[in-house]
Amino acid sequence: MAQPSHQVPERIPVTLVVNGTKRDLDLAPWTTLLDALRDHLNMTGTKKGCDHGQCGACTVLVNGRRVNSCLTLAVIKDGAEITTIEGLAKDDALHPLQQAFIDHDAFQCGYCTPGQICSAAGLLAEGRAKNADEIRELMSGNLCRCGAYPNIVAAIQQAMGRP
Amino acid sequence: MNNFQYSRATDVADAIRLLNSDPDAKLIAGGTNLIDLMKENVERPSRLIDISRLPLGKIEETAQGGLRIGALVPNSDLAYHPQVEQRYPLLASAILAGASAQLRNMASVAGNLMQRTRCAYFYDTATPCNKRSPGSGCSAVGGHNRNHAILGASPSCIATYPSDMCVALAALGALVHIAGPTGERRIALEDFHRLPGDTPHIDTNLGASEMIIAIELPPGGFSRNYSYLKVRDRLSYAFALISVAAALNLEGNAISEARLALGGVAHKPWRSLEAEQSLRGRAATADHFAHAADLLLQGASAASHNRFKIELARRAIVRTMMQAASAAPQSQAHKKIA
Ligand SMILES: Cc1cc2nc3c(=O)[nH]c(=O)nc-3n(C[C@H](O)[C@H](O)[C@H](O)COP(=O)(O)OP(=O)(O)OC[C@H]3O[C@@H](n4cnc5c(N)ncnc54)[C@H](O)[C@@H]3O)c2cc1C
Ligand code: SF4
Ligand code: FES
Ligand code: FES
Protein backbone atom coordinates (compact mmCIF):
# COMPACT_ATOMS: atom_id res chain seq x y z
CA MET A 1 0.00 0.00 0.00
CA ALA A 2 2.86 2.39 0.76
CA GLN A 3 4.08 4.11 -2.37
CA PRO A 4 7.72 3.97 -3.46
CA SER A 5 9.64 6.64 -1.65
CA HIS A 6 13.18 7.90 -1.41
CA GLN A 7 12.81 8.13 2.32
CA VAL A 8 14.13 5.12 4.21
CA PRO A 9 11.15 3.80 6.13
CA GLU A 10 11.52 4.27 9.80
CA ARG A 11 10.73 1.02 11.62
CA ILE A 12 9.02 1.08 14.96
CA PRO A 13 8.91 -1.79 17.45
CA VAL A 14 5.29 -2.87 17.98
CA THR A 15 4.00 -5.56 20.30
CA LEU A 16 0.59 -7.11 19.68
CA VAL A 17 -0.96 -9.83 21.82
CA VAL A 18 -2.66 -11.83 19.09
CA ASN A 19 -5.07 -14.51 20.27
CA GLY A 20 -3.22 -14.64 23.58
CA THR A 21 0.29 -14.86 22.13
CA LYS A 22 2.71 -11.94 22.42
CA ARG A 23 4.10 -11.02 19.00
CA ASP A 24 6.99 -8.57 18.59
CA LEU A 25 7.21 -6.78 15.26
CA ASP A 26 9.24 -4.04 13.62
CA LEU A 27 6.89 -2.12 11.40
CA ALA A 28 6.84 0.95 9.20
CA PRO A 29 4.38 3.37 10.84
CA TRP A 30 1.97 3.22 7.88
CA THR A 31 1.36 -0.51 8.33
CA THR A 32 -2.33 -1.01 9.07
CA LEU A 33 -3.36 -3.50 11.72
CA LEU A 34 -4.86 -5.58 8.89
CA ASP A 35 -1.59 -5.68 6.93
CA ALA A 36 0.36 -6.45 10.10
CA LEU A 37 -1.85 -9.49 10.70
CA ARG A 38 -1.93 -10.75 7.13
CA ASP A 39 1.48 -9.80 5.73
CA HIS A 40 3.71 -9.72 8.79
CA LEU A 41 2.16 -12.45 10.97
CA ASN A 42 0.88 -14.55 8.07
CA MET A 43 -2.55 -14.75 9.70
CA THR A 44 -4.72 -14.59 6.63
CA GLY A 45 -8.00 -15.50 8.31
CA THR A 46 -8.80 -11.80 8.56
CA LYS A 47 -9.81 -10.65 5.07
CA LYS A 48 -9.18 -7.49 3.09
CA GLY A 49 -12.30 -6.51 1.17
CA CYS A 50 -12.46 -2.79 0.50
CA ASP A 51 -9.55 -1.52 2.65
CA HIS A 52 -11.70 1.59 3.37
CA GLY A 53 -14.02 0.74 6.24
CA GLN A 54 -16.92 -0.01 3.91
CA CYS A 55 -17.32 -3.80 4.05
CA GLY A 56 -16.37 -5.23 7.47
CA ALA A 57 -14.34 -8.17 6.08
CA CYS A 58 -11.35 -7.04 8.18
CA THR A 59 -13.26 -6.96 11.48
CA VAL A 60 -11.25 -8.10 14.51
CA LEU A 61 -11.62 -7.52 18.25
CA VAL A 62 -9.20 -5.05 19.82
CA ASN A 63 -9.27 -5.28 23.61
CA GLY A 64 -12.61 -7.04 23.19
CA ARG A 65 -14.23 -4.44 20.91
CA ARG A 66 -14.98 -5.01 17.24
CA VAL A 67 -13.16 -2.65 14.87
CA ASN A 68 -12.19 -2.42 11.19
CA SER A 69 -8.53 -3.40 11.16
CA CYS A 70 -8.01 -1.68 7.78
CA LEU A 71 -8.58 1.78 9.28
CA THR A 72 -6.15 1.68 12.17
CA LEU A 73 -2.39 1.46 12.27
CA ALA A 74 -0.59 -1.36 14.06
CA VAL A 75 1.65 1.16 15.84
CA ILE A 76 -1.42 2.91 17.32
CA LYS A 77 -2.53 -0.43 18.77
CA ASP A 78 0.89 -1.21 20.27
CA GLY A 79 0.30 -3.35 23.38
CA ALA A 80 -3.30 -4.20 22.54
CA GLU A 81 -4.96 -7.62 22.70
CA ILE A 82 -6.18 -8.63 19.27
CA THR A 83 -8.63 -11.47 18.69
CA THR A 84 -8.97 -12.76 15.13
CA ILE A 85 -11.04 -15.56 13.64
CA GLU A 86 -8.08 -17.89 14.26
CA GLY A 87 -8.44 -17.28 18.01
CA LEU A 88 -12.13 -17.99 18.55
CA ALA A 89 -12.13 -21.79 18.75
CA LYS A 90 -10.96 -23.33 22.03
CA ASP A 91 -8.74 -26.32 21.24
CA ASP A 92 -11.00 -28.62 19.23
CA ALA A 93 -14.28 -26.93 20.17
CA LEU A 94 -15.65 -24.41 17.71
CA HIS A 95 -16.86 -21.08 19.07
CA PRO A 96 -20.68 -21.14 19.35
CA LEU A 97 -20.86 -18.60 16.53
CA GLN A 98 -18.70 -20.73 14.26
CA GLN A 99 -20.94 -23.72 14.97
CA ALA A 100 -24.06 -21.63 14.40
CA PHE A 101 -22.77 -20.37 11.03
CA ILE A 102 -22.25 -23.99 9.97
CA ASP A 103 -25.65 -25.08 11.34
CA HIS A 104 -27.43 -22.30 9.44
CA ASP A 105 -25.33 -22.42 6.27
CA ALA A 106 -24.61 -18.73 6.84
CA PHE A 107 -22.20 -18.30 3.92
CA GLN A 108 -21.58 -19.22 0.32
CA CYS A 109 -18.09 -18.15 -0.80
CA GLY A 110 -17.04 -17.53 2.81
CA TYR A 111 -14.99 -14.40 2.13
CA CYS A 112 -17.00 -12.19 4.47
CA THR A 113 -17.37 -14.92 7.11
CA PRO A 114 -14.37 -14.26 9.39
CA GLY A 115 -15.41 -10.61 9.58
CA GLN A 116 -19.06 -11.55 10.14
CA ILE A 117 -18.17 -13.92 12.97
CA CYS A 118 -15.76 -11.52 14.69
CA SER A 119 -18.33 -8.75 14.32
CA ALA A 120 -21.03 -11.01 15.77
CA ALA A 121 -18.71 -11.86 18.69
CA GLY A 122 -18.40 -8.11 19.33
CA LEU A 123 -22.17 -7.72 19.04
CA LEU A 124 -22.78 -10.47 21.63
CA ALA A 125 -20.29 -8.86 24.02
CA GLU A 126 -22.00 -5.46 23.62
CA GLY A 127 -25.38 -6.99 24.52
CA ARG A 128 -27.38 -4.33 22.66
CA ALA A 129 -29.15 -6.45 20.06
CA LYS A 130 -32.29 -8.13 21.40
CA ASN A 131 -34.18 -9.09 18.23
CA ALA A 132 -33.70 -9.69 14.51
CA ASP A 133 -34.17 -6.01 13.55
CA GLU A 134 -31.52 -4.97 16.02
CA ILE A 135 -29.14 -7.72 14.87
CA ARG A 136 -29.58 -6.59 11.27
CA GLU A 137 -28.92 -2.97 12.17
CA LEU A 138 -25.91 -3.68 14.39
CA MET A 139 -24.44 -6.07 11.80
CA SER A 140 -24.90 -3.58 8.94
CA GLY A 141 -21.15 -2.89 8.96
CA ASN A 142 -20.57 -6.35 7.45
CA LEU A 143 -21.52 -6.76 3.83
CA CYS A 144 -22.05 -10.17 2.21
CA ARG A 145 -21.86 -10.16 -1.57
CA CYS A 146 -23.37 -13.66 -1.65
CA GLY A 147 -26.41 -12.37 0.18
CA ALA A 148 -26.35 -14.88 3.03
CA TYR A 149 -27.93 -12.28 5.32
CA PRO A 150 -31.05 -14.19 6.47
CA ASN A 151 -28.90 -17.17 7.49
CA ILE A 152 -26.35 -14.94 9.18
CA VAL A 153 -29.10 -13.36 11.29
CA ALA A 154 -30.46 -16.84 12.12
CA ALA A 155 -26.99 -18.05 13.13
CA ILE A 156 -26.48 -15.08 15.43
CA GLN A 157 -29.91 -15.61 16.97
CA GLN A 158 -28.95 -19.21 17.70
CA ALA A 159 -25.68 -18.16 19.34
CA MET A 160 -27.55 -15.53 21.32
CA GLY A 161 -30.04 -18.13 22.47
CA ARG A 162 -32.94 -15.92 21.39
CA PRO A 163 -35.71 -16.40 18.83
CA MET B 1 -0.37 6.22 1.58
CA ASN B 2 2.62 8.56 1.78
CA ASN B 3 5.47 7.90 4.17
CA PHE B 4 5.27 9.86 7.38
CA GLN B 5 6.84 10.20 10.80
CA TYR B 6 4.95 8.98 13.86
CA SER B 7 4.87 10.57 17.32
CA ARG B 8 2.88 9.54 20.34
CA ALA B 9 1.78 12.67 22.21
CA THR B 10 2.49 12.53 25.95
CA ASP B 11 -0.11 15.16 26.91
CA VAL B 12 -2.24 17.90 25.33
CA ALA B 13 0.59 20.44 25.54
CA ASP B 14 2.91 18.01 23.77
CA ALA B 15 0.37 17.45 20.98
CA ILE B 16 -0.01 21.21 20.51
CA ARG B 17 3.77 21.71 20.52
CA LEU B 18 4.16 19.00 17.86
CA LEU B 19 1.39 20.60 15.75
CA ASN B 20 2.95 24.02 16.16
CA SER B 21 6.40 22.84 15.06
CA ASP B 22 5.20 21.20 11.82
CA PRO B 23 2.41 22.74 9.71
CA ASP B 24 1.99 19.49 7.75
CA ALA B 25 1.54 17.28 10.82
CA LYS B 26 -1.91 15.91 11.68
CA LEU B 27 -3.51 14.55 14.81
CA ILE B 28 -4.85 11.03 14.64
CA ALA B 29 -7.54 9.65 16.98
CA GLY B 30 -9.70 6.76 15.67
CA GLY B 31 -8.15 7.01 12.22
CA THR B 32 -11.39 6.13 10.42
CA ASN B 33 -11.45 9.28 8.31
CA LEU B 34 -7.78 10.23 8.19
CA ILE B 35 -6.39 6.81 7.22
CA ASP B 36 -9.09 6.44 4.58
CA LEU B 37 -8.11 9.81 3.06
CA MET B 38 -4.40 8.99 3.34
CA LYS B 39 -4.96 5.78 1.37
CA GLU B 40 -6.53 7.93 -1.35
CA ASN B 41 -3.59 10.37 -1.24
CA VAL B 42 -6.03 13.16 -0.40
CA GLU B 43 -4.32 13.73 2.95
CA ARG B 44 -0.52 13.53 2.94
CA PRO B 45 0.63 14.46 6.44
CA SER B 46 4.36 14.69 7.15
CA ARG B 47 3.77 13.38 10.65
CA LEU B 48 0.97 11.71 12.54
CA ILE B 49 0.58 12.80 16.13
CA ASP B 50 -1.12 9.94 17.93
CA ILE B 51 -3.40 11.41 20.59
CA SER B 52 -5.34 8.19 21.18
CA ARG B 53 -3.69 7.57 24.58
CA LEU B 54 -4.31 11.04 26.02
CA PRO B 55 -6.67 11.19 29.02
CA LEU B 56 -9.54 12.83 27.12
CA GLY B 57 -11.96 9.92 27.40
CA LYS B 58 -14.24 10.97 30.26
CA ILE B 59 -17.90 11.98 30.37
CA GLU B 60 -18.55 14.26 33.35
CA GLU B 61 -21.35 16.42 34.74
CA THR B 62 -20.68 20.14 34.55
CA ALA B 63 -21.37 22.62 37.36
CA GLN B 64 -24.21 24.01 35.20
CA GLY B 65 -25.93 20.61 35.10
CA GLY B 66 -24.82 19.75 31.59
CA LEU B 67 -22.35 17.15 30.35
CA ARG B 68 -18.71 17.50 29.35
CA ILE B 69 -17.61 14.87 26.86
CA GLY B 70 -13.89 14.28 26.35
CA ALA B 71 -12.60 14.58 22.79
CA LEU B 72 -11.57 10.92 22.66
CA VAL B 73 -14.79 9.32 23.87
CA PRO B 74 -15.68 6.74 21.21
CA ASN B 75 -18.96 7.43 19.38
CA SER B 76 -20.46 4.14 20.59
CA ASP B 77 -19.61 4.79 24.25
CA LEU B 78 -21.22 8.22 23.98
CA ALA B 79 -24.41 6.88 22.39
CA TYR B 80 -24.74 4.14 25.04
CA HIS B 81 -23.77 6.23 28.07
CA PRO B 82 -26.68 6.11 30.56
CA GLN B 83 -26.70 9.91 31.00
CA VAL B 84 -26.82 10.40 27.24
CA GLU B 85 -29.48 7.73 26.70
CA GLN B 86 -31.67 9.25 29.41
CA ARG B 87 -31.03 12.99 29.16
CA TYR B 88 -29.87 13.48 25.54
CA PRO B 89 -31.55 10.69 23.55
CA LEU B 90 -31.51 12.89 20.43
CA LEU B 91 -27.72 12.74 20.48
CA ALA B 92 -27.68 8.98 21.09
CA SER B 93 -30.09 8.44 18.21
CA ALA B 94 -28.11 10.59 15.75
CA ILE B 95 -24.88 8.78 16.58
CA LEU B 96 -26.50 5.37 16.12
CA ALA B 97 -27.83 6.50 12.72
CA GLY B 98 -24.25 6.93 11.49
CA ALA B 99 -21.59 4.58 10.14
CA SER B 100 -21.46 1.01 11.57
CA ALA B 101 -20.99 -0.55 15.00
CA GLN B 102 -17.28 -1.18 14.26
CA LEU B 103 -16.66 2.37 13.05
CA ARG B 104 -18.53 3.87 16.01
CA ASN B 105 -16.28 1.83 18.32
CA MET B 106 -13.23 3.46 16.72
CA ALA B 107 -14.45 6.97 15.92
CA SER B 108 -13.76 9.70 18.48
CA VAL B 109 -16.03 12.64 19.21
CA ALA B 110 -13.42 15.16 17.99
CA GLY B 111 -12.67 13.13 14.86
CA ASN B 112 -16.39 13.05 14.09
CA LEU B 113 -16.51 16.87 14.25
CA MET B 114 -13.45 17.11 12.02
CA GLN B 115 -14.51 14.53 9.42
CA ARG B 116 -14.30 15.81 5.87
CA THR B 117 -16.85 15.82 3.08
CA ARG B 118 -17.76 12.67 1.15
CA CYS B 119 -17.91 14.56 -2.17
CA ALA B 120 -16.61 11.95 -4.65
CA TYR B 121 -14.43 14.49 -6.46
CA PHE B 122 -12.75 15.46 -3.20
CA TYR B 123 -11.72 11.78 -2.93
CA ASP B 124 -10.60 11.51 -6.56
CA THR B 125 -7.18 13.13 -6.97
CA ALA B 126 -7.51 12.92 -10.77
CA THR B 127 -10.22 15.62 -10.77
CA PRO B 128 -10.17 19.34 -9.92
CA CYS B 129 -11.47 20.19 -6.45
CA ASN B 130 -11.11 23.53 -4.67
CA LYS B 131 -11.35 21.90 -1.27
CA ARG B 132 -8.50 19.45 -1.92
CA SER B 133 -6.44 21.65 -4.17
CA PRO B 134 -7.37 25.35 -3.83
CA GLY B 135 -7.88 27.18 -7.11
CA SER B 136 -8.20 24.03 -9.24
CA GLY B 137 -11.98 24.39 -9.71
CA CYS B 138 -15.04 22.49 -8.54
CA SER B 139 -15.89 19.32 -10.46
CA ALA B 140 -19.23 18.90 -8.72
CA VAL B 141 -20.80 22.10 -10.03
CA GLY B 142 -21.04 20.72 -13.57
CA GLY B 143 -20.71 17.06 -12.56
CA HIS B 144 -22.54 14.55 -10.41
CA ASN B 145 -24.05 16.53 -7.56
CA ARG B 146 -27.08 14.52 -6.48
CA ASN B 147 -25.93 14.53 -2.86
CA HIS B 148 -24.59 18.08 -2.74
CA ALA B 149 -25.62 21.21 -0.89
CA ILE B 150 -28.89 23.10 -1.25
CA LEU B 151 -28.04 25.75 1.33
CA GLY B 152 -25.06 28.01 1.99
CA ALA B 153 -23.02 26.77 -0.98
CA SER B 154 -20.75 28.96 -3.09
CA PRO B 155 -19.56 28.77 -6.71
CA SER B 156 -16.26 27.46 -5.29
CA CYS B 157 -17.73 24.45 -3.49
CA ILE B 158 -21.13 22.80 -3.10
CA ALA B 159 -20.01 20.00 -0.76
CA THR B 160 -21.97 18.88 2.29
CA TYR B 161 -20.64 18.09 5.73
CA PRO B 162 -21.53 14.46 6.47
CA SER B 163 -21.69 14.09 10.27
CA ASP B 164 -24.89 12.83 11.88
CA MET B 165 -23.72 13.42 15.44
CA CYS B 166 -23.12 17.12 14.79
CA VAL B 167 -26.67 17.70 13.55
CA ALA B 168 -27.90 16.68 17.00
CA LEU B 169 -25.12 18.65 18.71
CA ALA B 170 -26.16 21.75 16.74
CA ALA B 171 -29.80 21.32 17.76
CA LEU B 172 -28.77 20.86 21.40
CA GLY B 173 -26.61 24.00 21.37
CA ALA B 174 -23.33 22.24 22.23
CA LEU B 175 -20.02 24.03 22.85
CA VAL B 176 -16.61 22.96 21.57
CA HIS B 177 -13.69 23.25 24.01
CA ILE B 178 -10.41 23.96 22.28
CA ALA B 179 -6.79 24.08 23.50
CA GLY B 180 -4.04 25.94 21.68
CA PRO B 181 -0.57 27.43 22.17
CA THR B 182 -2.01 30.42 24.05
CA GLY B 183 -4.53 28.59 26.23
CA GLU B 184 -8.07 27.33 26.03
CA ARG B 185 -11.21 28.76 24.42
CA ARG B 186 -14.77 27.68 23.60
CA ILE B 187 -16.82 28.02 20.42
CA ALA B 188 -20.49 27.26 19.89
CA LEU B 189 -20.78 24.16 17.70
CA GLU B 190 -22.85 26.26 15.30
CA ASP B 191 -19.87 28.56 14.74
CA PHE B 192 -17.33 25.74 14.54
CA HIS B 193 -17.85 24.71 10.90
CA ARG B 194 -17.60 27.30 8.13
CA LEU B 195 -19.46 27.94 4.93
CA PRO B 196 -17.28 27.35 1.87
CA GLY B 197 -17.20 30.93 0.49
CA ASP B 198 -14.03 31.22 -1.55
CA THR B 199 -11.95 29.23 0.96
CA PRO B 200 -13.57 25.78 0.84
CA HIS B 201 -10.28 24.14 1.82
CA ILE B 202 -10.84 25.48 5.36
CA ASP B 203 -13.63 23.42 6.93
CA THR B 204 -13.65 24.79 10.47
CA ASN B 205 -12.61 27.73 12.64
CA LEU B 206 -10.10 25.59 14.53
CA GLY B 207 -6.62 27.18 14.35
CA ALA B 208 -3.71 25.27 12.79
CA SER B 209 -2.06 24.53 16.15
CA GLU B 210 -5.26 24.02 18.10
CA MET B 211 -7.02 20.84 19.11
CA ILE B 212 -10.44 19.93 20.41
CA ILE B 213 -10.35 18.72 24.00
CA ALA B 214 -14.06 18.34 24.80
CA ILE B 215 -17.67 18.96 23.82
CA GLU B 216 -20.07 20.47 26.34
CA LEU B 217 -23.82 19.92 26.37
CA PRO B 218 -26.05 22.47 28.10
CA PRO B 219 -28.51 21.10 30.70
CA GLY B 220 -31.61 21.10 28.45
CA GLY B 221 -31.72 17.73 26.68
CA PHE B 222 -35.28 17.68 25.23
CA SER B 223 -35.47 14.09 26.41
CA ARG B 224 -39.24 13.74 25.94
CA ASN B 225 -40.00 15.31 22.58
CA TYR B 226 -37.25 14.64 20.08
CA SER B 227 -36.54 12.67 16.92
CA TYR B 228 -33.65 12.11 14.51
CA LEU B 229 -34.68 11.08 11.02
CA LYS B 230 -32.06 10.15 8.44
CA VAL B 231 -33.11 9.66 4.82
CA ARG B 232 -30.59 7.75 2.71
CA ASP B 233 -30.21 5.47 -0.30
CA ARG B 234 -30.04 2.29 1.79
CA LEU B 235 -31.46 1.67 5.22
CA SER B 236 -28.20 1.48 7.14
CA TYR B 237 -24.47 2.19 6.81
CA ALA B 238 -24.94 5.01 4.32
CA PHE B 239 -24.51 8.75 4.53
CA ALA B 240 -27.56 10.99 4.69
CA LEU B 241 -29.27 12.56 1.73
CA ILE B 242 -31.13 14.60 4.31
CA SER B 243 -31.26 14.28 8.06
CA VAL B 244 -33.34 16.17 10.58
CA ALA B 245 -32.79 16.66 14.31
CA ALA B 246 -35.98 17.91 15.96
CA ALA B 247 -36.49 18.78 19.62
CA LEU B 248 -39.40 20.41 21.39
CA ASN B 249 -40.44 21.53 24.83
CA LEU B 250 -44.21 21.37 25.05
CA GLU B 251 -46.71 22.77 27.51
CA GLY B 252 -49.82 20.84 26.68
CA ASN B 253 -49.87 21.03 22.88
CA ALA B 254 -48.20 24.46 22.84
CA ILE B 255 -44.54 24.73 21.92
CA SER B 256 -42.43 26.62 24.46
CA GLU B 257 -39.16 25.90 22.74
CA ALA B 258 -38.23 24.34 19.39
CA ARG B 259 -34.91 23.21 17.97
CA LEU B 260 -34.47 22.13 14.39
CA ALA B 261 -31.25 21.27 12.56
CA LEU B 262 -30.67 19.77 9.13
CA GLY B 263 -27.83 17.51 7.98
CA GLY B 264 -26.74 16.62 4.48
CA VAL B 265 -27.82 19.97 3.06
CA ALA B 266 -24.87 22.32 3.63
CA HIS B 267 -21.21 22.71 4.57
CA LYS B 268 -22.34 22.64 8.22
CA PRO B 269 -25.38 21.58 10.27
CA TRP B 270 -28.15 24.01 9.27
CA ARG B 271 -30.24 25.91 11.81
CA SER B 272 -32.32 29.06 11.70
CA LEU B 273 -33.39 31.01 14.78
CA GLU B 274 -36.22 32.54 12.80
CA ALA B 275 -37.64 29.10 11.98
CA GLU B 276 -37.36 27.97 15.60
CA GLN B 277 -38.83 31.17 17.01
CA SER B 278 -41.77 30.98 14.61
CA LEU B 279 -42.90 27.93 16.58
CA ARG B 280 -42.77 29.50 20.02
CA GLY B 281 -46.22 29.62 21.61
CA ARG B 282 -47.76 27.82 18.62
CA ALA B 283 -49.64 24.54 18.63
CA ALA B 284 -47.64 21.50 17.52
CA THR B 285 -49.35 20.99 14.17
CA ALA B 286 -48.15 19.95 10.71
CA ASP B 287 -49.06 23.39 9.31
CA HIS B 288 -46.90 25.22 11.81
CA PHE B 289 -44.04 22.80 11.19
CA ALA B 290 -44.39 23.29 7.42
CA HIS B 291 -44.13 27.05 7.95
CA ALA B 292 -40.98 26.56 10.05
CA ALA B 293 -39.60 24.28 7.32
CA ASP B 294 -40.12 27.02 4.74
CA LEU B 295 -38.27 29.47 6.95
CA LEU B 296 -35.39 27.05 7.51
CA LEU B 297 -35.18 26.33 3.78
CA GLN B 298 -35.31 29.99 2.78
CA GLY B 299 -32.74 30.65 0.08
CA ALA B 300 -32.37 26.97 -0.80
CA SER B 301 -31.09 26.48 -4.31
CA ALA B 302 -30.42 23.31 -6.25
CA ALA B 303 -27.52 22.18 -8.43
CA SER B 304 -28.26 20.13 -11.56
CA HIS B 305 -29.08 16.80 -9.85
CA ASN B 306 -30.30 17.57 -6.35
CA ARG B 307 -33.49 19.60 -6.76
CA PHE B 308 -35.41 16.76 -5.09
CA LYS B 309 -33.59 17.45 -1.82
CA ILE B 310 -35.44 20.72 -1.25
CA GLU B 311 -38.88 19.12 -1.19
CA LEU B 312 -37.49 16.02 0.55
CA ALA B 313 -36.08 18.25 3.30
CA ARG B 314 -39.40 20.07 3.68
CA ARG B 315 -41.32 16.83 4.09
CA ALA B 316 -38.70 15.28 6.34
CA ILE B 317 -38.79 18.29 8.64
CA VAL B 318 -42.57 18.10 9.08
CA ARG B 319 -42.40 14.34 9.60
CA THR B 320 -39.62 14.55 12.17
CA MET B 321 -41.29 17.41 14.05
CA MET B 322 -44.51 15.41 14.22
CA GLN B 323 -42.58 12.40 15.57
CA ALA B 324 -41.04 14.67 18.21
CA ALA B 325 -44.37 16.27 19.11
CA SER B 326 -46.01 12.88 19.62
CA ALA B 327 -43.04 11.57 21.65
CA ALA B 328 -42.60 8.78 19.09
CA PRO B 329 -38.99 9.22 17.96
CA GLN B 330 -37.67 7.49 14.87
CA SER B 331 -36.15 4.12 15.79
CA GLN B 332 -32.68 3.52 14.36
CA ALA B 333 -33.26 -0.27 14.28
CA HIS B 334 -36.86 -0.60 13.10
CA LYS B 335 -36.68 1.47 9.94
CA LYS B 336 -40.33 2.09 9.26
CA ILE B 337 -40.95 5.84 9.34
CA ALA B 338 -43.99 6.59 11.46
C1 LIG C 1 -17.57 3.54 5.61
C2 LIG C 1 -17.82 4.72 6.51
C3 LIG C 1 -19.12 5.12 6.76
C4 LIG C 1 -19.37 6.21 7.59
N1 LIG C 1 -20.66 6.60 7.78
C5 LIG C 1 -20.91 7.68 8.56
C6 LIG C 1 -22.24 8.15 8.76
O1 LIG C 1 -23.21 7.57 8.25
N2 LIG C 1 -22.43 9.25 9.55
C7 LIG C 1 -21.39 9.90 10.12
O2 LIG C 1 -21.62 10.88 10.82
N3 LIG C 1 -20.13 9.51 9.94
C8 LIG C 1 -19.86 8.42 9.17
N4 LIG C 1 -18.57 8.03 8.98
C9 LIG C 1 -17.49 8.90 9.43
C10 LIG C 1 -17.02 8.63 10.84
O3 LIG C 1 -18.00 9.08 11.74
C11 LIG C 1 -15.72 9.43 11.01
O4 LIG C 1 -14.74 8.84 10.18
C12 LIG C 1 -15.24 9.44 12.44
O5 LIG C 1 -16.17 10.07 13.27
C13 LIG C 1 -13.90 10.13 12.54
O6 LIG C 1 -13.39 9.99 13.86
P1 LIG C 1 -11.92 9.43 14.11
O7 LIG C 1 -11.63 9.53 15.56
O8 LIG C 1 -11.75 8.10 13.48
O9 LIG C 1 -11.07 10.54 13.32
P2 LIG C 1 -9.62 10.47 12.65
O10 LIG C 1 -9.71 9.77 11.35
O11 LIG C 1 -8.60 10.02 13.64
O12 LIG C 1 -9.41 12.01 12.42
C14 LIG C 1 -10.24 12.75 11.55
C15 LIG C 1 -9.75 14.20 11.53
O13 LIG C 1 -9.92 14.80 12.80
C16 LIG C 1 -8.72 15.36 13.26
N5 LIG C 1 -8.74 15.22 14.71
C17 LIG C 1 -8.85 14.07 15.44
N6 LIG C 1 -8.89 14.35 16.76
C18 LIG C 1 -8.80 15.70 16.86
C19 LIG C 1 -8.79 16.61 17.97
N7 LIG C 1 -8.89 16.18 19.24
N8 LIG C 1 -8.71 17.93 17.72
C20 LIG C 1 -8.63 18.38 16.43
N9 LIG C 1 -8.61 17.57 15.36
C21 LIG C 1 -8.71 16.26 15.57
C22 LIG C 1 -7.65 14.57 12.55
O14 LIG C 1 -6.45 15.33 12.45
C23 LIG C 1 -8.27 14.32 11.21
O15 LIG C 1 -8.10 15.43 10.37
C24 LIG C 1 -18.29 6.91 8.19
C25 LIG C 1 -16.99 6.49 7.96
C26 LIG C 1 -16.73 5.41 7.13
C27 LIG C 1 -15.32 4.98 6.90
S1 SF4 D 1 -18.08 20.39 -4.15
FE1 SF4 D 1 -16.31 21.06 -2.93
S2 SF4 D 1 -15.37 19.13 -2.37
FE2 SF4 D 1 -16.69 18.65 -4.15
S3 SF4 D 1 -15.43 18.98 -6.01
FE3 SF4 D 1 -16.40 20.92 -5.57
S4 SF4 D 1 -14.82 21.98 -4.37
FE4 SF4 D 1 -14.33 19.82 -4.25
S1 FES E 1 -11.42 -4.28 4.44
FE1 FES E 1 -11.77 -3.13 6.23
S2 FES E 1 -13.86 -2.63 6.07
FE2 FES E 1 -13.46 -3.53 4.12
S1 FES F 1 -20.44 -15.59 1.90
FE1 FES F 1 -19.66 -14.70 0.08
S2 FES F 1 -19.47 -12.62 0.69
FE2 FES F 1 -20.56 -13.46 2.33
CATH classification class of the largest domain in chain B = Alpha Beta
What is the helix tally of chain A?
Answer: 5
> Biggest chain pair contact, residues each?
A-B, 41 and 33 residues
Helix content of chain B: 25-40%
CATH class of the largest domain in chain A: Alpha Beta
The average pLDDT of chain B is 97
The N- to C-terminal Cα distance of chain B equals 45 Å
Kindly report the oligomeric state of this protein.
heterodimer
Average of per-residue pLDDT values of chain A: 94
The CATH topology of the largest domain in chain A is what? Ubiquitin-like (UB roll)
Count of alpha and pi helical runs of chain B: 13
The H-and-E topology of chain A, N to C, reads as EEHEEEHHHH
Q: Could you explain the architecture of this structure?
A:
The complex is a heterodimer of chains A (163) and B (338). Chain A is α+β, with helices and mostly antiparallel strands. Chain A folds into 2 domains: 12-85, Roll (Ubiquitin-like (UB roll)), CATH 3.10.20.30; 96-160, [2Fe-2S]-binding domain (DNA polymerase, domain 1, Orthogonal Bundle). Helices cover 30% and strands 15% of the residues of chain A. In chain A, a hairpin with a 2-residue loop joins β1 and β2 (21-27). The termini of chain A are far apart. Chain B is of the alpha+beta class and 338 residues long. Helices cover 29% and strands 19% of the residues of chain B. In chain B, the strands form 3 sheets. Chain B has a 5-stranded antiparallel sheet. Chain B has a 3-stranded parallel sheet with strand order 1-3-2, with helices on one face. The longest helix of chain B has 18 residues, at 308-325. The chains are: A alpha+beta (163), B alpha+beta (338). Chains A and B meet through β4, α3 and α4 of A and α2 and α6 of B. Residues 26-34, 36, 51, 71, 98-99, 103, 106-108, 110-112, 114-115, 162-165, 211-212, 239 of chain B line the site of flavin-adenine dinucleotide.
